[in-house]
């Protein structure tokens, strides 16, 4: 994801600035210019970037900086707040309630991922106990109904559509009525898209909305559309009351900055992002953790949530304590591997850990990574307590390594490879020394 590069560029700009001996207006301007360039390269709309830097200049008080306060922190906090402000329109979107029928209408251009996203949205809610249903009111694209039918069948979600009826408004109304009678509490209406914005599309959307009176209209946007995002989102908003945005294909090479622009154009929050073609490649979107990750600060709140889900209550304080001590032993690595295996989508958890790269667990190769971890754990099972509790890799002499290999039935080379991995992780872990673990939702300590 190119957004990661954006995070990297911003962090570098801040780093360069904090290396300067004196922070004056010139140094601050240089830093903001770098940030501006990075945001524009990521396709964030020019006006948004300009407003953001103007705001930062207003907030950051150069006298405070000169007085020796932590400059990088003050400016990073300002950048963090401004990015959050762009992404958070200040009002939450409508959330459907279980047991009460809600109609949610999806709009977007053809190819944006609208039909796929309708099913992902239905599937997500079905897993959480809703009773969703899908209505295909796309009579424009040949094959749209078949696609929805196929997706819905796979996910065991009831669907409605017609091969013969050509009036999308009639299909939408009939579908909504049918599912209301069947006590479905989340009725999702997929509408037609077009290759480009045109009057006929907007008129049809308006009519479907008028007839079905949706509780929420979701605008689906392909993250790779770049600078066009702002205008496209605005055009949809002017025709129907868009209340939320879903950004798709965030797994590709999209620059992603369009998401920020779409929020600004529709004044509606991004609620989910699509991260792949599969039904479950769909993530809830939260502003603060997203910006934290973007700025390379690690997603502490996501990580803490995961910890709370899988690490037994009584072990949580101990783990956090170990993290903040920056003292990493093979035993800690073993315990973390145990937790990671329990935590599920491994890459996701690891990308939340501040400073952790996906090196150990590249995305898409989770199975391989899991067997690697299991292999490492077998080797560690052959270690003595002294070896597990030491953080000195020199203790691992050749004869010890040979003994571990023999004991676990693995090759010497594999034990050495594991020790390299340990050293790599220990180095990253040591950077966390002294970190204050922030409360949920706050930005990471710097
Ligand atoms: P629609 O014309 O807007 O209904 O778009 P579709 O739902 O048919 O999607 C168009 C293409 O984008 C399909 O090949 C989907 O599999 C693909 N797609 C949708 N969402 C995502 C996503 O989040 N990531 C990736 N990689 N592909 C996606």
Query: Main beta sheet, described?
Result: 8 strands, mixed
Secondary structure category? alpha/beta
Number of extended strands: 8
Q: What is the ordering of alpha helices and beta strands? A: HHHHHEHEHEHEHEHEHEEHHHHHHHHH
Shape label = flat
Q: Biggest sheet, strands in spatial order?
A: 3-2-4-1-5-6-7-8
Strand content: 5-15%
Q: Briefly, what is this?
A:
With 446 residues, the protein is of the alpha/beta class. The chain is built from 20 helices and eight strands.
Q: Mind sketching the topology for me?
A:
Layout lengths: L1 H18 L5 H17 L4 H14 L2 H5 L4 H17 L14 E6 L6 H14 L4 E6 L6 H11 L4 E2 L7 H14 L4 E6 L7 H14 L3 E7 L6 H11 L2 E7 L8 H10 L3 E5 L7 E3 L2 H8 L5 H11 L5 H10 L4 H14 L2 H7 L13 H16 L3 H5 L8 H11 L3 H19 L16
Parallel strand pairs: 1-4, 1-5, 2-3, 2-4, 5-6, 6-7
Antiparallel strand pairs: 7-8
Helix pairs in contact: 1-2, 1-5, 2-3, 3-5, 5-12, 8-9, 10-11, 15-17, 17-19, 19-20
The chain binds guanosine-5'-diphosphate.
Subunit structure: Component of a signal recognition particle (SRP) complex that consists of a 7SL RNA molecule of 300 nucleotides and six protein subunits: SRP72, SRP68, SRP54, SRP19, SRP14 and SRP9.
Organism: Anisodus acutangulus
GO molecular function: 7S RNA binding; endoplasmic reticulum signal peptide binding; GTP binding; GTPase activity
